[in-house]
TrEMBL record:
Residues 155-220 form the HTH luxR-type domain. It comes from Paracoccus kondratievae. SMART domains: HTH_LUXR, REC. This is DNA-binding response regulator. GO terms for molecular function: DNA binding. GO terms for biological process: phosphorelay signal transduction system; regulation of DNA-templated transcription.
Length: 223
């Protein structure tokens, strides 16, 4: 039997959920799983920009956000960061195909309340959803351990520390965007993009732009 899930406010009405994912089949499948357990109304958005607009129009009770949207490996993280600036209490669950503890940690740092992998069993997906919808947090034990280990220093190893702007530009570089297109999208000058690219090459040890793309992908995947 389908039941309403009370939010932390005590409201028992059907939940309004917005899924931001560029794969309609995934969004539909996720919706079918949740509807078997919770009375809810689900809307979807195929891009981060559409997700932002839909949130502003509908103000849903909960957001489900994919990390990689299109070719941008951190589009979901940037959307979470943007949402958190204006709505610190919105429950946000990351639903992703990536198992990278690096990306998972960044999503949590920028404000996600929980993370669940797309190939998780339906029961686990429902558990993660229910916990986040109630105002809690959810990360499965294996991923939580991997995230914890990232904070343990090992002799002779050090992960490069990138600023938010550097990560944003690196993400667009890994998409194959030109410096001019990056400058237009980020509303900065071409020279700034070029300078940041030089810093990124130095921090990641990349010999050239092609090498930076490869190292950027590895950076976001946590390899």
């Amino acid at each position: 039997m389908q039941a309403s899930l009370k939010m932390k406010s005590g409201d028992a009405r059907p939940l309004q959920i917005l899924i931001v994912d560029d794969h309609p089949v995934v969004a539909e499948g996720w919706g079918r799983i949740i509807r078997t357990k919770v009375a809810c109304e689900i809307a979807s958005a195929p891009s981060a920009s559409e997700g932002w607009r839909s949130w502003r129009q509908a103000r849903p009770d909960l957001m489900v956000v994919d990390l990689s949207i299109g070719r941008n490996k951190i589009a979901g993280i940037r959307l979470i960061e943007r949402l958190r600036r204006v709505d610190p209490d919105l429950p946000i669950l990351v639903f992703t195909m990536h198992r990278s503890p690096v990306l998972a940690r960044r999503a949590l740092m920028f404000g996600a309340n929980g993370i669940i992998n797309k190939d998780s069993p339906p029961a686990e997906i429902c558990e993660a959803f229910s916990e986040v919808a109630r105002g809690g947090n959810y990360v499965d034990s294996r991923l939580a351990m991997q995230i914890a280990l990232l904070n343990v220093s090992r002799p002779g190893t050090s992960a490069p520390r990138l600023t938010g702007r550097e990560e944003e530009i690196l993400g667009m570089i890994t998409e194959g965007m030109s410096y001019r297109d990056i400058a237009d999208r980020a509303c900065i000058s071409y020279k700034t993009v070029s300078n940041v690219s030089l810093v990124l090459k130095d921090k990641l040890g990349a010999a050239n732009l092609a090498d930076l793309v490869v190292k950027g992908i590895r950076y976001f995947e946590g390899d």
